[in-house]
Amino acid sequence: MMLRHAILAGMALLIGGTGAMARERSQSRVPDTETVATEAALGERMNANTVSVITGTPGGTYFRIGADLAFVLNDGDKLRVLPILGKGAGENAYDIRFLKGVDLGFIRTDTLEQLRQDKRLKHIDQRIQYIAKLFNDELHVIAPMAVRDVRELAGKRVTFDVKGSGTDYSGRAMFQGLGVAVEVVNVDQPTALQMLRNGEVDAVVSVAAKPVSVIAGFDAGDRFHLVKTPYPDTLSEAYVPAAITNADYPKLVQGGETVETLAVGTVLGVFNHPKGSERYNKLARFVDAFFTQYDKFLAPQRHPKWHDVNLAASVNGWTRFRPAQDWLDSHRQQEVASASDLDRFLGEQPPSPAADKEQVYQAYLKWRQEQHGLSASRTAKDTRLGRP
């Protein structure tokens, strides 16, 4: 009898337990309304406040600049900048135009001309605009010491980074403008430098903002150097003269030497979303944060190229994104005041031989501090709205 009761009790427990488990499983299938609402709100808030920026390859200047944007501008739930690895300026333009979720990207001043040549694209000037002109990317040509001038590479095997990269387009366009026809090889930069060591190629080209870490870390020894690239008058106006020194690359440029080269401008590009749309509005918030907090990008831990930026500079053939233009227009009075100060400063200077532009600018900053008692960072930010 006791055994019978024990069995019945066990069955009751089993049945009861099975029912409880069934009820528990059934309840687990029914979403909690409050939890769903909270998660939905969280997702909406995160997406509404996040802007993505397509950068470049790991270790490249664009990747570092994108990281700086995130470090400086991330502000909790108000704004988040999400850098994304990319191939470089050439491919970045297509990513901005077509990839869902890509808001911003680093592209070059010659990019629109590249896109105009693609017959598949329509009204590209209206689709892609710019927030600000940033800095210049210099042409680097690394070759054996016997090569003294870029024109000596005619007919040689030369690498131009991976297909679709900024170097692939801008570098080849520069060589074409120079009248130097070469055998193009497309491989990533670490592979290219190893091929150069092995004698498999005759030169490695990189178009990027100096100093480029992969180039700076290249152990050139007494075999390789940066090759001189004189600037011809016939070159496209998209390209400007530039120089590279031993301070930029101690392993590739001898002390006291200046290597002539070319450069092309980089802009912070943006897709021109319809005014009033969600993505337009969050990009407007990004613009305000970027311009307002620009002085933070001048900190020592940030990339030195930030010091070359002129926020008010216009770019020929490009249209500035409306929120950026509106911000600059609203601060025009501040810009005019800076220009007036500059005129007064220059008028007080004694006649002297042509000085380095950066020396003049630094002297002006020091003078303006003395005149107005402004901090160095605030002075730099104000002046860059109308820097000559």
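Second entry:
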Amino acid sequence: MATEVDDFLREGALMPYGSERVRLHAEAVRVADLHQDLEAGFKARQQLIQSANLGGDPNLALVAFAWCLGQHDADPKRFPANGGGYFTNLLWMYKWVVERAIEHPAISRAKVDELLADMARRYTAGGFSLRPVRKLELQSAVTAQEAERIPAAMAEWLRLRRDSLSDCMACDVDMTSAAHLATHDLKLAREAAKPIFELRMTCAEVPTVTYGRFLLPLSRSGDDEEAQRLAHLLPRKIGINRDYVTPAGALVVYLVERRSRPALPTAQRHATWALVGETPLRRVTLMIGLAKASRLARDMGRGEDSLGILLPNEPATSFAEAEERMTQEAMKVAAAFDARNGHDRFSSTVSKHLAGDGEWWWPL
């Protein structure tokens, strides 16, 4: 049995984040449960949490994560919460679970608040700083476009001590700059991000996510030279890494708005990222970019050119077919966030971007 579980886990680990990877890791969980093997079930769910979380299914990740927490609560020595590496340490993984929950409109604010409260309780019980919890509260305000909440949330986060469960300094600096962008303060955002732009701080995702975050605000502010520099760097940094779907979306928007020669090829390169994998929040900028690219292709007489395969098992979609579809998908995401947040700020922002008269800040 253990071999069968491990086979599913290994096979899934070779797949890109998405439905097939989730299916294989869910099958590993099913086999472990069928044989009532708690250790194998715990191990398989740790993999499933990662795959579902990064593959756009935070509800499934929450269910698996709750099971793991339950096993830890029942037998902490057998199932430790704070052991191993990033992908096995439940307290570290809690940050990822809540982050993706915040970014997915299917998870209610009440559920997010419940998760944050439980996370805070567990961190306090373990003697850890609440800094990661407060950072997620800040991210919640930023994601909801509730700028009035941001200054107090940021101050509360930054006043707390760092420890072993805190994010790296580069990620924290990136978050600080993002919060300033969310309050439409480009000057403070650039000052905060200075160590990143000077390459004095980097990590696995920084500076790629930072460059993507700043590309459109800088362009709209009239800093064409810096925007062009970032647009030149981003294609190589994004590569084929779907984690960078948001920078890819920003790049498509930037190129389309300038009617640059690489605009349509860049849209084609990243089209398969728009509707699957990652959270809707991270994908919505690319949806907007592809709608704009499709409009540009139509204006250029290339509407019947192939944009690409948008979903598995679908035929290739033309630019002409994709324009309405991407517009509808972006507005659907916006409406879902509005329903969760209790106001229409998300739909208002997305509508303006689709019409071409929006101001790009963060997250939109």
